[in-house]
Each structure stands twice: as C-alpha cells, then as structure tokens.
Amino acid sequence: MIRLENVSFTYADDEFPAVDNVTLTIDEGSFVVLIGHNGSGKSTLAKLLNALLIPTEGDVWVEGMNTKEEEYTWEIRKNVGMVFQNPDNQLVATVVEEEVAFGPENLGVAPAEIEMRITEALEQVGMSAFRKRPPHMLSGGQKQRIAIAGVLAMQPKMIVLDESTAMLDPQGRKEVIETIEGLTEKGMTILLITHFMEEATFADRVLVMDNGKLVMDAPPVEIFSRVEELRDYQMEIPQVIELAHELRKHGIAISDDILEREELVSELCPLL
Ligand code: ADP
Ligand code: MG
Predict the structure, then answer these.
(1) Residues 6 or more apart from 24 whose CB is under 8 A from it?
(2) Is the pLDDT of residue 100 over 90?
C-alpha cells in the first residue's frame, strides 16, 4: 500500500532533516502505530504519505503512485485520509451530516451516493443517532469520530491519524481507539500516531522515530520488551510494562509478553 525508500525531508530554513533516510513499507489492511518524542518527525512523515509534503530525497509510493508526480496527487489524497489532533479545527459544517458530506461533495460524488456514504460512515463510527446534531455540541471523542466519518465517506484505502487522541479525555480516547479497532477489523489500513504507548498494544506493528530516523520497527510485544531502548528515545513507558520489566530485572519470573494490567495481575497473584 505504502512504500518509502530512503526518504528524507528538510524544511526550507532548517539545518537538519525532519525525516532522515526512512525506508518502510505498510501492507494493506495492517494496523501500524507510530510513536516518538516531540519533534521526532512523526507529523512530517505523515504528511509525506499523502503528498502534502514531497521528499527532498528518496521516494514515496502510494499504491504504486510516486507522490512526486503531480498527476497522482489527487488520487493519492483520496486514498490516504488524514485525521488531525484538534477536532475543532477540522469541523466546518453546522450539522453532522453536512460535515460528513463535505469530502465526497468535493470529490464530485452524486447526491444519492453521498446519502449512502453518510449513513454507512456514521454507522462505522457509531454516530448514526447524531446525524442531525450540530457538531459543536458534541464531546471531543464524538467530534473526532465525526472527523473519521468524514474521511471514511471519501472511501480511502488508508487512514492516518496524527495524535487524534491527544486532546481527548480518557473516555473520548477510548471511543476513538475502539472506533479505530473496528475499522482495522474490517480491513482498513491504519497508521495511528500517538503519544500514548498503551494505544500501541493492539497494533500489528509499532514504529518508533527519534530525530527523524526510524529507530524501531517490530510487533508491540517486542517493542515493549526493549524498555531501556525506549527510555533512550525519551518514551514514557506504560506502568504495567515498566513494573513487569523491573520485576524481571530482580529475578522474578514474569513472562516477557505482558502488555496489559490483567495479564500482569494473573501472573503476579500466584507468586504472591
Ligand atoms: P513530531 O510530529 O514528531 O512532533 P514534526 O514532524 O512536527 O515532529 O517535526 C520534526 C522537526 O521538524 C522538528 O524539529 C520541527 O521543529 C521541524 N518542523 C516541523 N514543522 C516545521 C515547519 N513547518 N517548518 C520548519 N520546521 C518544521
Ligand atoms: Mg506531530
């Protein structure tokens, strides 16, 4: 679906590349989580995926289309939908259904087809009951689900969410993550950029960026077992992972694939 080959990007007045020689493929239908400290190049990488930015070195292909070739820009943007951090900056309409219709209208989709897409997209994010409501009255989590519905209505092949849970309360975050999980189960390709490492637990693959470089690329169980390395990249380690790691270091027999609290509890109880 996505292929990056030796991709670098340097902003006009910057000395160092924001993305530095990244080579990477993303398979259709996979759920990939990208983590990394502030300024590590995550958003820049995201923008390279849908031709919002063009590499200063190397190539990005989306379904075989090189983002450098302007004739493909439209098709690439349609294929790779983006959801950003602040729900309030993304919503433009006064009624939810208009919001969801906005993308397909711009693509020139016929009205009857748009109707169907609105119904389907709102269903997929669990927001059908809010169709006639004004978006500004919704909670943060609900707003992000509407933003996701707006992207779904354009029928993309992939969705990139750039810290789309960062401004939400725990309930909103849970709603959005559950929505994303629902989409991945239906075969949607997802790249989730997040500050919350816990959100990587259900990923097929976790990528870690540091100073523009892709420094780790492995399944979550493996990533989470490399605690010292994650600390070097200034990542905050989830409590459960950290506790399991410290216990292991002290010679207590905890298996090395613990990702969730319940798993740790069930291993600890017999030991106690
Ligand atoms: P992240 O999303 O991981 O926080 P970014 O991709 O936003 O990282 O930023 C990577 C680097 O590029 C940082 O050093 C940042 O200061 C720089 N950068 C980001 N956007 C711009 C811009 N529009 N102009 C110049 N430098 C930028
Ligand atoms: Mg960012």
Answers:
(1) 2, 3, 4, 7, 207, 214, 217
(2) yes
Nearby residues of 19 by Cβ (< 8 Å), 6 or more positions away: 7, 8, 9, 41, 44, 45, 48, 55, 212
> In terms of DSSP H, where are the helices of the chain?
42-49, 73-79, 87-90, 96-106, 111-124, 140-152, 170-185, 220-225, 227-232, 239-249, 261-271
- 2-219: which CATH architecture? 3-Layer(aba) Sandwich (3.40)
d(CA 181, ligand 2 centre) in Å: 22
Residue 71 tokens, joined: 């004739």
Q: What is the pLDDT of the chain when averaged over all its residues?
A: 95
Which tokens in the block code for residue 166?
């960062």
Going from the Cα of 162 to the center of ligand 2, the distance in angstroms, rounded, reads 7
Give pTM, 2 decimals: 0.94
Q: Per-domain residue ranges for the chain?
A: 2-219
